[in-house]
């Protein structure tokens, strides 16, 4: 099976991406690299370990990543309103008795590329700070890795921080721009596409009806997130499955249709943090990414419920 690394700022939809992956026998999850974003790094690591233990996979290692953006020391305000103060919808689950590894996430990423090469897919669902640092330390990984499937940005104008900035890119636009321009084989799953994949309480009730510790946790956590979406995005009916769609595409690319695009991130203009696609300058293939433009919503939602439920049994 293909090998995967999930790089998580473990909030609600990151946890759903992890659950999706754990319910996928067709992928081998090597480990989780931790980042900051929805919550501070430490809380994210704690959440990842606790969820792994609750879902019966305490053997999967969790590596501590960088805890702040590449160009400044301060943390950005964690998004407590959307993901809850603890990042997992204010649901309380037992702490794992395992600790994060002592190896850093950046070393883990580089070592994994050296070991698995083209068989490795790396799925960042938070800021791109860890991957940027890994490329800086070992530039050759750009040619050695199988693929990066990232959740972030948006091709059409659409943001959740402000009208042009999506949260993951907004945290560290410089890192994102360097990754985008590095020539690493990457697929961008943006907010304009993930906001088409909405989950409602009708689906979370299916987890509730399963009535296992894991499924009750997913239902409670996701209902909190659906409540936040109702408050902050009243025009939508349900919550966005941003991070799970990236994990799903890493496992099965046919969920989305993509276009080749020469991508960059605005780092010093008035729309700092915006991802900009250019399909007229495709003559530099090393700078070309695949950008999702369309998603098979019904098929993805079916697979999402089936795999996350499998992870809870
Ligand atoms: C992204 O931002 C985070 O809040 C979510 O976990 C997701 O990765 C959506 O913009
Ligand atoms: Ca995330």
From TrEMBL:
Record GO terms (molecular function): hydrolase activity
Record protein name field: Nucleoside hydrolase
The keyword Hydrolase is annotated on this UniProt entry: yes
Keyword Hydrolase on entry: yes
Signal peptide: none
Originating organism: Bifidobacterium asteroides
Domain Inosine/uridine-preferring nucleoside hydrolase per the UniProt entry, residue ranges: 4-301
Highest taxon above the source species: Bacteria
InterPro entries on file: Inosine/uridine_hydrolase_dom (IPR001910), IUNH (IPR023186), Ribo_hydro-like (IPR036452)
Pfam families for this protein: IU_nuc_hydro (PF01156)
UniProt keyword annotations, A-Z: Glycosidase, Hydrolase
